[in-house]
Amino acid sequence: LGALAYGIRLLAAVPRAAGGRDTAIAPRSLDQPWRGAVERVQNSRRDFEEATRSVVEGPLKDRLDGVAARLDRAVQEAWRIAKAGNLLSRGRKQIDTTRIESELDYARSRPVGSSTAETIAAMESQLASAARLDATIQDTYDRLVLLDARTDEAVARAVELSVSQVDDQAIGELDSDVGQIAGDME
């Protein structure tokens, strides 16, 4: 029964893709801080849309539309990463390190025997797993925060470009930067 429940849980966690990408983003289905990270990236995308709305039809508008498509990809990637981070966080909550440390202290106070040594090794392994999960969760969140900041930077540059109606080279640099942001997320 335990293996069946685990298998069902894994299947439920597998993202369902349309055309290779999730299309529905539902930040409210995530716990904090993952929800907030996705919402901030979505807000950046909306800010970009608002900033470029007043650009007149023409080559600049066309190039900014290309940047918008890349930002959409970045938002999808942020959603994918946040879902994975959320799943990691939920899994980590299942490891009760306080209880394990207490039991480990007790096991260490017992006379040394082969089963005591094996018990201690198993508990230390559980604590090591929890520490690795903590490091992975923190790294995942830090990357989302960095990518959110880079997305905000791209939005600020788009605002600047949309109001100044600058040259093609500046748009090309912005397009390249946003493509790199999405690539880094992937």
Structure description:
The chain is rod-shaped, with a radius of gyration of 23 Å. It has helices spanning 2-13, 34-52, 59-92, 97-109, 114-164, 168-185. The relative contact order is 0.14. Helix 5 (114-164) packs antiparallel against helix 6 (168-185). The protein has 186 residues and is mainly α. 79% of the residues lie in helices and 0% in strands.
Concise synopsis of the structure shown:
This protein is an all-alpha fold. The protein has helices spanning 2-13, 34-52, 59-92, 97-109, 114-164, 168-185.
Evaluate the radius of gyration.
23 Å
SSE order: HHHHHH
Helix content, binned percent = over 70%
What is the mean pLDDT?
81
Q: Give a short account of the largest sheet.
A: none
How many individual helices? 6
Per DSSP, what share of the residues sits in E-state strands of 2 or more residues?
under 5%
Output the structural class: mainly alpha
Through-space gap between termini: 35 Å
Name the shape in a single word: rod-shaped
Quantity of strands, as a count = 0
- Give start-end ranges of low-pLDDT stretches: 16-22
Pick out its properties.
single chain; 186 residues; mainly alpha; rod-shaped
How does the SSE layout of this entry go?
Layout: H1 2-13, H2 34-52, H3 59-92, H4 97-109, H5 114-164, H6 168-185
Helix pairs in contact: 2-3, 2-5, 3-5, 3-6, 4-5, 5-6
